[in-house]
Write a structure and sequence with these properties.
Elements: E1 10-14, H1 19-30, E2 34-39, H2 48-56, E3 60-63, E4 76-79, H3 88-92, E5 98-100, H4 101-111, E6 116-121, H5 126-139, E7 145-147, E8 164-165, E9 171-175, E10 190-193, H6 203-214, E11 220-224, H7 225-231, E12 241-244, E13 252-254, E14 257-262, E15 265-268, H8 274-289, H9 294-302, E16 312-316, E17 322-326, H10 331-344, E18 349-353, H11 358-375, E19 381-385, H12 400-409, E20 414-418, H13 421-431, E21 437-441, H14 447-454
Parallel strand pairs: 1-2, 1-4, 2-3, 4-5, 6-9, 6-10, 7-9, 10-11, 11-12, 17-21, 18-19, 18-21, 19-20
Antiparallel strand pairs: 7-8, 13-14, 14-15, 16-17
Helix pairs in contact: 1-4, 5-8, 5-9, 8-9, 10-11
């Protein structure tokens, strides 16, 4: 039986600099718990967007070497699926009870039981929609609480990373991650399911996971039509279900502004990309379900300021290329990001992707190729960097070079591989022309944002 958190407990987070773990750590710190954490990369410059606010909130940060136990005796250790059994913090404190990240998230829902919980999930867009819904509720003076897998720009301050907001209203919006199926540990009042894509496991497994999670919704289910078609036979007959259809939003660009027709409203989208019309539809549909009128909901949705590393403009390169930075890391997200870049480019798109691990690359390289073949124009180019490695067990297969060789063997489109960022930088100098788009994509590695900026003439 896993540990049950009690009021006044001391809680230690392994991997506290991670986007999900840091949000949980901030929640417990804000609710009066003594919180500490360790991280392998706590001192790295690219991670200070999160680490500095944690320290400002009184969260003690340690290197991930087991040294924390000399200073504190926590009541429990929170860990994620990514933490290995031989982690130094585990070895230093084998007697301390352990609590999985999902169980800790379940505790936040229990502690916020007076609030209406809204879980946002899906293969693509859940971080953006969680942020968008939370900020829309904030714009509606609802003062929501929020736990998210991304840094919400409007909530970021020197003392707040932006992936957690401690609101006092009646809504608690949180991102429910399906990557390790841990979302099945908890339930929510409302469940919002955006889509099913290709990322961590097969479509059949996704159907099982999302159907089981959806069936646990206490008050209602909001989901996209295709998802409903896949899971409807597994839903309780009395569950309140609202469906939105991804194909009816009239997405268009007029005078460098993206627009969509949603629920008979003309919406000025705050970001490019047809996928953002779907995201806006999900948010508007949810707000309507929560009782907000169309006019108020529309204004709240249109005033969304985005999430860090979601098609962020980094600047222009010396050659005149426009550089964007994005967290895209699965086939559907990468394709959507490239399409958005094509919308704003009068030149070619050079799409650079760093896989977020060897195992994810092995799982996705075939569906990624299919997406790329559909989205890349003859003059666009796709470049793959070596996979990001954060430690732990790995077969180090497949390599990016192997994947790109396979792509080139089966296509006449432009695919290439750069083993290092230095090699990529030198290559870009020879191929980028004025108004081309350089799109830097990848998850888990915050240094990608700094790298994108290093390609601009502002650095």
């Amino acid at each position: 039986m896993e540990y049950k958190i009690k009021r006044g407990d001391k809680i230690h987070f392994i991997g506290v600099g991670g986007i999900g773990m840091s949000a949980l750590a901030q929640f417990f710190a804000a609710n009066g718990y003594e919180v500490s954490g360790s991280d392998r990369a706590a001192e790295k410059k690219e991670n200070q967007e999160i680490i500095k606010p944690l320290k400002a909130q009184g969260i003690k940060i340690f290197p991930q070497d087991g040294s924390f136990i000399k200073s504190i005796q926590p009541d429990c250790i929170v860990y994620s699926t990514a933490i290995e059994d031989n982690n130094p913090d585990f070895l230093a404190a084998p007697e301390i009870p352990r609590l999985h990240r999902a169980a800790a998230l379940a505790e936040t829902i229990n502690l916020n039981d007076e609030q209406i919980s809204i879980a946002v999930t899906g293969s693509c867009g859940k971080t953006t929609v969680t942020a968008w819904l939370a900020e829309a509720l904030y714009n509606l003076d609802a003062d929501p609480s929020c736990l998210n897998g991304g840094l919400i720009n409007s909530f970021r301050t020197p003392d707040c990373a932006g992936n957690f907001r401690n609101g006092h209203g009646k809504h608690f919006v949180f991102e429910a991650d399906e990557s390790d199926k841990s979302l099945l540990v908890y339930k929510a009042d409302y469940v919002l399911i955006l889509n099913m894509g290709t990322d961590h496991y097969s479509k059949a497994e996704l159907v099982d996971v999302f159907a089981a999670f959806a069936a646990k919704a206490e008050k209602g289910l909001i989901l996209e039509q295709e998802v409903f078609d896949l899971i409807q036979d597994r839903l309780p007959k009395n569950l309140d279900v609202i469906i939105f259809d991804k194909d009816v939003y009239g997405y268009r660009i007029v005078d460098d502004k993206a627009w969509a027709q949603i629920n008979e409203m003309e919406i000025a989208l705050p970001a490019f990309g047809k996928h953002n019309a779907l995201n806006a539809a999900a948010v508007l549909t949810t707000l309507t379900k929560l009782g907000y009128d169309n006019d108020s909901a529309q204004k709240a949705v249109e005033n969304f300021n985005g999430v860090w590393r979601r098609f962020d403009y980094a600047g222009r390169s010396a050659e005149g290329g426009v550089v964007y930075d994005d967290y895209a890391h699965n086939p559907e997200k990468i394709a959507s990001c490239i399409r958005a870049a094509q919308e704003v480019s009068s030149g070619k798109v050079i799409a650079v992707f760093q896989p977020h691990g060897f195992k994810p690359l092995g799982f996705m390289f075939e569906p990624l190729f299919k997406e790329l073949e559909n989205v890349l124009r003859p003059y666009d180019e796709f470049i793959m960097l070596s996979p990001f490695y954060a430690g732990g067990t790995s077969s180090f297969k497949p390599t990016s070079e192997e994947v790109i060789r396979l792509y080139k063997r089966n296509s006449k489109k432009k695919y290439s591989c750069c083993v290092s960022r230095l090699e990529l930088t030198e290559y870009l100098k020879t191929t980028v022309q004025n108004n081309d788009i350089i799109l830097i994509m990848g998850a888990r590695d915050n240094s990608l944002s700094d790298y994108a900026k290093s390609l601009t003439c502002h650095n």
